[in-house]
């Protein structure tokens, strides 16, 4: 069961039980109050006994509700804990005890630090107590232990509800996938590079020979297809490194107006061959942003190249950079066939492609937009799409304006984060 759904069901059940108990208790107290008012003085002893009976029944109801809640939580494969305001465990279902290496019932009364043996979790719960919600992923028993996804939410009645999901197998599969792609890419890169070199050599040798045109065309086709394979291998390796956190950004102040102009200039000849005009619009005195100029240039190259591939001859691709609040917004708009709504939700997935018949015979790897999305997100932005089928497409992203522009080249702050390149 999905973690969010499981926790929602559990909280809903707890709320329903609490509400039912409150309604029942209110009705009983109303009956007792009517009894006291009906016979003041003479039936005080009877009224007192009625109050005591109601108290006992209320305690039994609460105990029964706690038992039912515990049975419901025990059916879940998700760990569920209840902390009081002092961050001490008041309830823990069997899954939570298993995840944290405790015997059933061995967590009640323990502090957050004793339960998890991790200061990061304690800080996470403190944050949830103050802000209302918090979450993260930890390994309480070291790198070889379980990987637990933690979500904590403040309860309206005080304390915290905490849900634990064991994602150890998922992380292991992700690591296996990353290692497989990495190894495969390295193994394929060398022979593919050799094939392409041999093809280029063969094409040059054919210039000195009299051979049919169809032979030259086939050799050229081999070179093109080999180039596509080399590009795919390189992008697979690049995306694998991005997702594994192996690539780094070198952040500095960046002139996005210059990055936009340079990226469009690199694709000028390609645009001319396609019969497409590239229009650059940058605001006057555009402020500098904080980012990695090389990576941002690769994002723009990918977006502009895609726009050119999908645009018919005689149209215009517009690349803009303007100020929006505290960010510089960069957009690439084309007048191509647009992207269907059904495709928009998946356009940034790896290997996903829209109708190939509309790419005018120039296929891609389906990795470029996935890589571009990662780079933009690593800069603290979000790559967004706006499109209607038959009315072109616009990709845009925003970058934070550099707050401190007084630093010089020798003392500018350098930060490192995961990053990647585009197609």
Q: Any overview of this molecule?
A:
This protein has 423 residues and is an alpha+beta fold. It folds into 3 domains: 3-167, PAS domain (Beta-Lactamase, 2-Layer Sandwich), CATH 3.30.450; 170-243, Helix Hairpins (Orthogonal Bundle), CATH 1.10.287; 252-400, 2-Layer Sandwich (Heat Shock Protein 90). The protein is 50% helix and 16% strand. It contains 12 helices and 12 strands. It has helices at 3-38, 44-75, 94-99, 112-116, 119-131, 168-206, 213-243, 256-266, 268-274, 293-310, 341-344, 368-378; strands spanning 79-83, 89-92, 133-138, 148-154, 160-166, 252-254, 277-282, 289-291, 316-324, 327-333, 384-387, 393-400. Strands 2-1-5-4-3 form a 5-stranded antiparallel sheet. β11 (384-387) and β12 form a beta hairpin. α7 (213-243) runs parallel beside α12 (368-378). The longest helix has 39 residues, at 168-206.
Observed structural traits:
elongated; Beta-Lactamase; five-stranded mixed beta sheet; Helix Hairpins; 12 helices; Heat Shock Protein 90; disordered C terminus; five-stranded antiparallel beta sheet; alpha+beta; single chain; 423 residues
């Amino acid at each position: 069961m999905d973690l969010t759904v499981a926790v929602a069901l559990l909280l809903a059940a707890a709320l329903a039980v609490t509400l039912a108990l409150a309604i029942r208790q209110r009705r009983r107290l109303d009956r007792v109050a009517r009894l006291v008012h009906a016979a003041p003085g003479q039936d005080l002893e009877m009224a007192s006994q009625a109050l005591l009976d109601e108290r006992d029944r209320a305690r039994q109801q609460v105990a029964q509700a706690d038992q039912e809640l515990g049975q419901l939580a025990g059916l879940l494969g998700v760990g569920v804990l209840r902390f009081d305001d002092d961050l001490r465990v008041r309830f823990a279902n069997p899954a939570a005890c298993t995840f944290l290496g405790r015997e059933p019932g061995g967590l009640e009364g323990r502090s957050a630090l004793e339960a998890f043996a991790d200061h990061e979790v304690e800080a996470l719960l403190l944050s949830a107590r103050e802000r209302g919600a918090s979450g993260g992923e930890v390994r309480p028993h070291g790198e070889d232990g379980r990987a637990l996804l933690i979500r904590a939410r403040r309860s309206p009645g005080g304390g915290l509800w905490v849900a634990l999901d064991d994602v150890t197998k998922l992380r292991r599969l992700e690591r296996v996938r990353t290692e497989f792609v990495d190894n495969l890419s390295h193994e394929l890169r060398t022979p593919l590079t050799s094939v392409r070199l041999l093809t280029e050599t063969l094409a040059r040798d054919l210039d000195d020979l009299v051979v049919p045109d169809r032979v030259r065309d086939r050799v050229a086709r081999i070179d093109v297809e080999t180039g596509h394979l080399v590009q795919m291998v390189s992008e697979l390796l690049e995306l694998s490194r991005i997702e594994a956190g192996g690539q780094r950004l070198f952040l500095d102040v960046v002139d996005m107006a210059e990055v936009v102009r340079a990226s469009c200039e690199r694709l000028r000849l390609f645009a001319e061959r396609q019969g497409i005009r590239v229009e650059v619009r940058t605001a006057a005195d555009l402020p500098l942003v904080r980012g990695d100029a090389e990576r941002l240039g690769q994002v723009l190259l990918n977006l502009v190249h895609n726009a050119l591939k999908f645009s018919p001859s005689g149209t215009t691709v517009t690349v803009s950079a303007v100020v929006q609040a505290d960010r510089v917004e960069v957009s690439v708009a084309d007048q191509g066939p647009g992207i269907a709504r059904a495709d928009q939700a998946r356009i940034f997935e790896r290997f996903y492609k829209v109708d190939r018949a509309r790419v005018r015979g120039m296929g891609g790897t389906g990795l470029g937009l996935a890589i571009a999305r990662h780079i933009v997100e690593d800069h603290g932005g979000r790559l967004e799409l706006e499109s209607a089928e038959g009315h072109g497409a616009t990709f845009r992203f925003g970058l934070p304006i550099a707050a401190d522009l007084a630093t010089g080249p020798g003392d500018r702050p350098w930060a490192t984060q995961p990053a990647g390149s585009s197609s």
